[in-house]
Specification:
Helix 4 packs antiparallel against helix 5 and helix 6 (about 135-145) packs across helix 7 (about 200-215). The chain has helices at about 5-10, 15-25, 45-55, 60-70, 75-110, 135-145, 200-215, 250-255, 265-275, 325-330, 340-350; strands at about 1-5, 30, 40, 115, 120, 125-130, 160-165, 165-175, 175-185, 195-200, 220-225, 230-235, 235-240, 260-265, 280, 295-305, 310, 335-340, 350-355, 365-370, 375-380. The longest helix is centred in the N-terminal third of the chain and has 35 residues, at about 75-110. It folds into four domains: about 1-70, Multidrug-efflux Transporter Regulator, Chain: A, Domain 2, CATH 1.10.1660.10; about 75-110; about 130-245, DNA Polymerase III, subunit A, domain 2 (DNA Polymerase III, Chain A, domain 2), CATH 3.10.150.10; about 255-380, DNA Polymerase III, subunit A, domain 2 (DNA Polymerase III, Chain A, domain 2). The two termini are about 45 Å apart. Residues about 115-125, about 285-295 and about 315-330 have low confidence and may be disordered. It has about 375 residues and is an alpha+beta fold. The strands form four sheets. Strands 6, 7, 8, 9, 10, 11, 12, 13, 14, 19, 20 and 21 form a twelve-stranded antiparallel beta sheet that branches. Strands 15, 16, 17 and 18 form a four-stranded antiparallel beta sheet that branches. This is DNA-binding transcriptional MerR regulator. Pfam families: DNA_pol3_beta_2 (PF02767), MerR_1 (PF13411). It is found in: Cytoplasm. Keywords: Cytoplasm, DNA replication, DNA-binding, DNA-directed DNA polymerase, Nucleotidyltransferase, Transferase.
């Protein structure tokens, strides 16, 4: 048996780290002296302690540390956890590079202020991309419902146009739901485009795209960002306006979900079930929406062990439910969401859907079953007492 000090020296972990992981239920001693409280570790625990030390260096979360250490040697559970964490780290590095690139531009602008001519700033180089008109219209329609109307959050009062490689992503959020639209884009290599388009201007763009679609369904739209303005030209018509000079939240971190469950079903069937099913009242948080003093109906979705999704009345199993079907009901995952938000998300994503659930406090993702990487919505769960 090894003392905690000896195990610390041989594993690379500190004594305080070993005590922390013991209290967190991740990695504990084989034996604790009842008189002195000294921790003693078995010889075969050294390998796990060294593994824990390496995983700690790369920031693996506690819950996933438990999974890796508890996984059987002949299972691939541990490898799946590490693969998922590596993807998160790679995505985080990509985010850091983007943020540092933007920071460098801000530093350059501060050190070399824009020169002026005739009292006005000289025009910056225009950034231009081309998008299919119908795809841009569909992406706008898929996110419009999620734009915030809260005057205390002006940075959410618009739609983000964000070029991600060859995909133009449109993003809107009010903190309680988030919607992402996608449209294939063509641009010169290395093009970077990110513009926060005010709601009113986004609506003008949507109306323009709809009017042109009646006469030229295949028309392409040219999106141009110059300095603080954005313009969309399609079918010989042009809409232009000023961007919001505000920082939109980093949506990329929010959409990297690793759901535990996926359910495929029709949007019409789910909408019918939501409208016909029971609801619960829940008082929205201040600032969630207009009329926050009025209770909002909440829909509780229950995912059974056999994969069926139902609308139920309670967010937790009641004693009556734990009768003859105790084993099945007890294993249900139940997620409560704002009913109005859920219906709007269903309207924005028609046809066959894929619902992704990660737990009672994880966002509910609603995607198209035919295009899981396209337009989708996230709904924040509602906590019920």
């Amino acid at each position: 048996m090894r003392s905690i000090g000896q195990l610390a020296r041989e594993s690379g972990l500190t004594v305080s780290a070993l005590r922390f992981y013991d209290s967190a239920g991740v990695f504990g001693p084989a034996q604790v002296d009842p008189q002195t409280g000294y921790r003693w570790y078995a010889p075969d625990q050294l390998a796990d302690a060294r593994l824990l030390c390496r995983l700690r260096r790369v920031g693996l979360p506690l819950a996933e540390l438990r999974l890796v250490l508890a996984a059987p040697a002949d299972a691939d559970t541990a490898h799946r956890v590490l693969d998922a964490h590596l993807r998160r780290l790679e995505d985080g590095l990509a985010d850091a590079r983007r943020e540092l690139s933007s920071a460098r531009k801000l530093i350059d602008e501060r050190e070399q202020p824009m020169t002026t001519t005739m009292g006005s700033a000289t025009a910056q180089d225009a950034v231009r991309i081309t998008v299919a008109g119908p795809e841009l219209a569909a992406a706008l329609a898929a996110v419009r419902f999620a734009v915030s109307t809260d005057p205390e959050l002006p940075m959410l009062g618009g739609i983000l146009f964000d070029l991600d490689g060859t995909v133009l992503r449109l993003v809107a959020t009010d903190r309680y739901r988030l919607a992402v639209g996608a449209a294939a884009a063509r641009a010169a290599a290395g093009t970077q485009l990110s513009a926060l388009v005010p709601t009113a201007l986004a609506d003008e763009i949507g109306l323009l795209l709809a009017s042109v679609a009646d006469t030229d369904p295949g028309a392409e739209a040219s999106v141009t960002v110059t300095g603080g303005s954005v313009s969309v030209a399609v079918g010989g018509h042009l809409v232009t306006g000023e961007c919001l000079d505000l920082d939109f939240p980093d949506y990329r971190r929010l959409v990297r979900l690793e759901p535990s469950y996926r359910v495929e079903l029709g949007a019409t069937d789910l909408r019918r079930a939501v409208l016909a099913g029971p609801t619960r009242p829940a008082r929205p948080e201040p600032g969630a929406q207009a009329g926050a003093d009025v209770t909002a109906p909440v829909t509780v979705l229950a995912l059974g062990g056999n994969g069926d999704l139902r609308v139920v009345e309670s967010a937790a199993n009641s004693p009556d439910e734990l009768g003859a079907e105790a084993s099945a009901r007890a294993e249900e995952l139940r997620v409560a969401v704002n009913q109005e938000f859920l219906l709007e998300a269903l309207d924005a994503t028609q046809g066959q859907l894929v619902l992704e659930l990660g737990g009672v406090i994880s966002p509910l993702a609603i995607r198209s079953a035919t295009d899981v990487d396209g337009n989708f919505s996230l709904l924040m769960p509602v906590r019920l007492s």
